[in-house]
């Protein structure tokens, strides 16, 4: 077997663990200790971390036992409970977004693109569709949960070892590397309402003993299935599942309720299932009969519309079917050389239901010679002919119609992920080395059912000579010829592949003796090639279907070299330094990282780091073929100045849906960052541990689209033609806002800062077992974005709403875990707390919502905090048999009504368990040894 020096082992752990482990890996009494004691202080994540085992960097280590006791059954589900996860995180439930069907983590709320996700210390190919059309990221739902050994999170950002693009931090998922035996497990889950059912089964087999047989092979296969949960299945859960919040004091129209079908006033109406036609004389919209047979909303629009809410169709949790396969082989070629290979495959299909299409779609696409604006507002161009049997006006008229007869749109994301690694590791001439070649691919296939061929629709409504005319709407839709639907309704698709190839080499050795121990050196090099090809839905390039254009294409090659020194200067002081050089196709960077840890006594240490980061523009941001159109809630500066709608405007104008279209900018410059941490670790008693770390990250030259709120105030913004009458005069340019350009640019900077606290206490109860209490608390002092001279403070608010979900940035998130072990039994409770947030898009803005009586909503313009308790148990019923189970949201708490977020209906995505309700899981695991 390979024999390693202590410093070499420490550096190997640094590399294989996926983190830039600093000099804290070197033991206080240096290297005079025997192998067993050295082993005790390496980071394993299962025991209370002693001060001498802490590094200069704040690292959160999550053991397999921690994951099991949480009751979570996927990597994504667990990671999104972390207190360091923030805005920009992608939950599985977000079916209305660009990257529906994927999941991502966003450390410090800086977005998934600034969080580096690794598998066994190496990268993975990116998901095939960028979040918000901009942010390329790694889909963590592809990770096989059953072979996860531990998860390590570097929370001080900018890793000089694994990539300077890790601006917010590193998440490394480490899989098992040496296993013997066969383990079979099965899990089933259901909600307290007996829906949202889940099943999962896996088998893991390991053969060969590295010591005796000189090889080990691990094989794993798991399959899982989750049933779709509709919002309508939660109608009996207060405001959860319904968009009609009038009984709780809200007006009929609230942006987060996804309201449609109402008539807002003269020349203004939303699509409805009965259909509304515009009187060519008065310009008032008048609804056709039959609303009660189409809409489930009982208390109807007093303005005469046919009111309906998206909960009639929309998915709360998607239908998911998936399979993961993983294999790893390790071969001991001789005492100094080991070969290894890994292969992983994942296929995951997620299906969401969203609302039916409408005849008045407003689509955006790249400018072309026939449409310089890159926009078609079909609400103004699709007319019902004067000769249409349902048109009583004798003239061509505008209409607003939700095509319930076509049916709800179904979005199906089928993602296949491959990853293969082959490498050698060993010792040579005093060096420990590790080198490998990696190939990874992601192949995303998207189906959007029930999209509309707008040319056929236009002729079917407005051209009496068309073979499809007349297209009957509303209650008369049963008269339509099936040939019309065959021509008009289609499934739009895309295939979006991404690829990644890597060759890397790393080596480490001891250098010279210092008073505190041996100085260590690590060096490495990497060559990486990435390609990204995200086409838009077929038919969206010229607006011929009812979907906006979203596309990106590009490739990149990166060459990097790096080095790190670990120096125990004296027994109480350890210093570390790392330097990385990256060469991109058009950019290059040198990024340093330094750290220090001072341990005046064995049980107390002060630590700190400084690091710099560098992220080159991604293909969606800089590619000349990149274009995306995204939506967010804005306050219309014309129709709702100072938060109060003008006469003739509506409350919805104060939280209007704005579409910003963003175009790739090849002139973008890289983002650069600086990160700081300062903290201490204190173990006052053998079973007591505290760690507190202050952190700050400043990201300069940041790549963002213009804030949608700023874009809404630009000249040339697109509006409807329902202009307001001001002082008796119809004023041009005051119609309902539609959208406008929000170009990518290098804005000034973002600065986030806060504090992480971890405390752990063990209690020995004698014959009654052991009790372990663990608390993790993240407090965000400030989350500041500065555009020129304009400051946007998001900490404690519902912003940043330009990122996915508009979930908000609570100042405090806390996880408290209390576990009891006695013999073969473990019972664990997890209390999760999300702090309250002001219901404003950013500091200084008026309240984003109001009750029907004009007062701020929710009460005090504050989204209440939310706390849940999950409990789990694990019981070793026999030598090789384990029974386990969990109850999420034990007390069945209901998530607070959130009227602003667009990631969910009526609740915040961070409070998802409060929407689903109490949830039960039970499982079995049997080991054949």
Summarize the topology.
Blueprint: H1 6-16, H2 35-41, E1 59-63, H3 64-70, H4 75-79, E2 115-119, E3 148-154, E4 169-175, E5 181-191, E6 198-207, E7 215-226, E8 229-230, E9 259-260, E10 263-265, E11 268-269, E12 276-278, E13 285-287, E14 308-309, E15 315-317, E16 319-334, E17 337-354, E18 362-364, E19 375-377, H5 378-381, E20 383-384, E21 397-400, E22 409-428, E23 431-452, H6 454-462, H7 482-488, E24 489-514, E25 517-534, E26 552-570, E27 573-583, E28 588-601, E29 604-615, H8 619-622, E30 627-634, E31 656-663, E32 671-685, E33 688-700, E34 703-705, H9 708-711, E35 718-719, E36 725-726, E37 729-730, E38 737-741, E39 744-746, E40 749-764, E41 770-787, E42 790-793, E43 812-822, E44 825-834, E45 837-838, E46 849-850, E47 856-857, E48 862-863, E49 866-876, E50 881-888, H10 912-916, E51 919-928
Parallel strand pairs: 2-4, 31-38
Antiparallel strand pairs: 1-3, 3-4, 5-6, 5-51, 6-7, 7-16, 8-15, 9-14, 10-11, 12-13, 12-21, 16-17, 17-22, 18-19, 20-21, 22-23, 23-24, 24-25, 25-26, 26-27, 27-28, 28-29, 29-32, 30-31, 32-33, 33-40, 34-39, 35-38, 36-37, 40-41, 41-42, 41-43, 43-44, 44-49, 45-48, 46-47, 49-50, 50-51
Share of residues in strands: over 45%
Q: pLDDT under 50 segments (min length 5)?
A: 1-52
Radius of gyration from the CA trace?
29 Å
Choose one word for the global shape.
globular
> How widely separated are the two ends?
24 Å
Rounded average pLDDT: 88
Class inferred from helices and paired strands: mainly beta
Helical proportion, percent range: under 10%
């Amino acid at each position: 077997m390979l024999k390693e020096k202590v410093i070499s082992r420490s550096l190997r752990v640094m590399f294989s663990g996926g983190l830039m482990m600093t000099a804290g890996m070197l033991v206080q009494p240096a290297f005079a200790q025997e192998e067993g004691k050295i082993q005790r202080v390496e980071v394993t994540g299962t025991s209370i971390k002693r001060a001498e085992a802490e590094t200069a960097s704040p690292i959160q280590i999550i053991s397999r036992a921690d994951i099991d006791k949480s009751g979570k059954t996927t990597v994504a589900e667990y990671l999104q409970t972390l207190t360091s996860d923030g805005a920009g995180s992608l939950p599985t439930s977000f079916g209305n977004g660009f990257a529906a069907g994927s999941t991502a983590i966003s450390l410090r709320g800086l977005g998934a693109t600034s969080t580096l996700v690794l598998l066994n210390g190496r990268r993975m190919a990116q998901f095939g569709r960028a979040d918000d059309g901009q942010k390329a990221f790694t889909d963590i739902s592809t990770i096989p949960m059953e072979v996860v050994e531990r998860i390590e999170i570097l929370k001080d950002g900018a890793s000089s070892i694994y990539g300077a693009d890790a601006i917010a931090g590193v998440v490394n998922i480490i899989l098992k590397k040496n296993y013997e035996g066969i383990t079979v497990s099965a899990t089933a889950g259901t909600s307290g309402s007996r829906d949202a059912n889940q099943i999962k089964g896996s088998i893991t087999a390991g053969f060969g003993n590295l010591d005796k047989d000189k090889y080990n092979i691990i094989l794993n296969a798991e399959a899982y299935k989750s049933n779709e949960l509709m919002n309508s299945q939660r109608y009996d859960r207060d405001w959860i599942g319904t968009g009609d919040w009038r009984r709780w004091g809200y007006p009929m129209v609230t942006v987060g309720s996804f309201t449609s079908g109402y008539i807002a006033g003269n020349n203004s109406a939303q699509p409805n299932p009965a259909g509304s036609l515009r009187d060519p004389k008065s310009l008032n919209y008048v609804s056709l009969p039959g609303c009660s047979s189409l809409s489930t909303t009982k208390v109807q629009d007093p303005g005469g519309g046919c009111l309906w809410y998206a909960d009639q169709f929309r998915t709360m949790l998607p239908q998911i079917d998936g399979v993961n396969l993983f294999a790893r082989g390790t071969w001991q070629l001789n005492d100094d050389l080991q070969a290894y290979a890994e292969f992983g495959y994942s296929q995951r299909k997620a299906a969401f239901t969203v609302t039916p299409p409408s005849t008045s779609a407003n689509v955006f696409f790249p400018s072309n010679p026939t449409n310089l604006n890159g926009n078609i507002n079909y609400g103004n161009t699709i007319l019902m002919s004067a000769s249409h049997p349902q048109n009583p006006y004798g003239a061509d008229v505008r209409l607003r119609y939700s095509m319930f007869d076509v049916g709800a749109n179904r979005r199906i994301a089928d993602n296949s992920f491959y990853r293969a690694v082959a490498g050698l590791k060993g010792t040579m001439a005093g060096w420990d080395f590790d080198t490998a070649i990696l190939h990874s691919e992601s192949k995303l296939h998207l189906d959007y059912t029930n999209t509309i061929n707008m040319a056929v629709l236009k002729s079917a409504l407005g051209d009496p000579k068309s073979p499809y005319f007349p297209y009957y709407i509303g209650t008369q839709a049963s008269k339509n010829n099936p040939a019309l639907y065959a021509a008009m309704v289609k499934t739009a698709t895309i295939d979006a592949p991404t690829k990644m190839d890597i060759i890397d080499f790393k080596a480490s050795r001891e250098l010279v003796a210092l008073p505190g121990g041996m100085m260590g050196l690590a060096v490495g090099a990497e060559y990486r090639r990435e390609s990204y090809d995200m086409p838009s839905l077929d038919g969206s390039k010229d607006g011929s279907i009812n979907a906006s254009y979203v596309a990106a294409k590009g490739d990149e090659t990166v060459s990097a070299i790096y080095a790190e020194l670990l120096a125990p200067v004296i027994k109480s002081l350890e210093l570390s330094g790392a330097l990385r050089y990256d060469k991109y196709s058009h950019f290059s960077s040198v990024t340093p990282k330094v750290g220090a840890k001072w341990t005046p006594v064995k049980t107390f240490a002060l630590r700190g780091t400084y690091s710099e980061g560098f992220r080159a523009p991604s293909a969606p941001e800089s590619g000349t073929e990149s274009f995306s159109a995204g939506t967010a809630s804005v306050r219309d500066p014309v129709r709702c100045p100072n938060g109060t709608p003008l006469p003739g405007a509506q409350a919805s104008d104060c939280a209007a849906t704005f579409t910003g279209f963003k175009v790739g900018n090849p002139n973008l410059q890289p983002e650069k960052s600086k990160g700081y941490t300062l903290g201490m670790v204190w173990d006052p008693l053998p079973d007591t541990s505290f760690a507190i770390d202050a952190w700050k990250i400043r990201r300069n030259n940041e790549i963002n689209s213009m804030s949608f709120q700023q874009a809404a105030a630009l000249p040339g913004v697109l509006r409807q033609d329902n202009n307001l009458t001001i002082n008796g005069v119809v004023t041009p340019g005051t119609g309902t806002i539609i959208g406008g350009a929000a170009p990518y640019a290098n804005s000034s900077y973002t600065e986030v800062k806060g504090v992480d606290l971890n405390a752990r206490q063990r209690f020995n109860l004698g014959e009654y077992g052991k009790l372990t209490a663990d608390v993790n608390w993240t407090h965000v002092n400030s989350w500041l974005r500065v555009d020129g001279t304009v400051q946007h403070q998001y900490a404690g608010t519902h912003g940043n709403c330009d990122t996915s979900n508009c979930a908000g940035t609570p100042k405090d998130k806390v996880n408290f875990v209390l576990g009891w072990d006695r013999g073969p039994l473990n019972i664990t409770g997890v209390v999760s707390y999300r702090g309250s947030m002001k219901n404003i898009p950013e500091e200084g803005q008026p309240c984003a919502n109001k009750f029907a009586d004009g007062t701020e909503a929710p009460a005090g313009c504050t989204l209440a905090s939310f706390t849940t308790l999950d409990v789990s148990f694990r019981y070793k019923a026999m030598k090789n048999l384990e029974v386990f189970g969990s109850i999420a949201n034990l007390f069945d708490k209901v998530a607070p009504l959130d009227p602003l977020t667009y990631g969910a209906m009526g609740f915040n995505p961070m409070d998802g368990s409060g929407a689903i309700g109490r949830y039960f899981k039970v499982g079995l695991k049997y080991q054949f040894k």
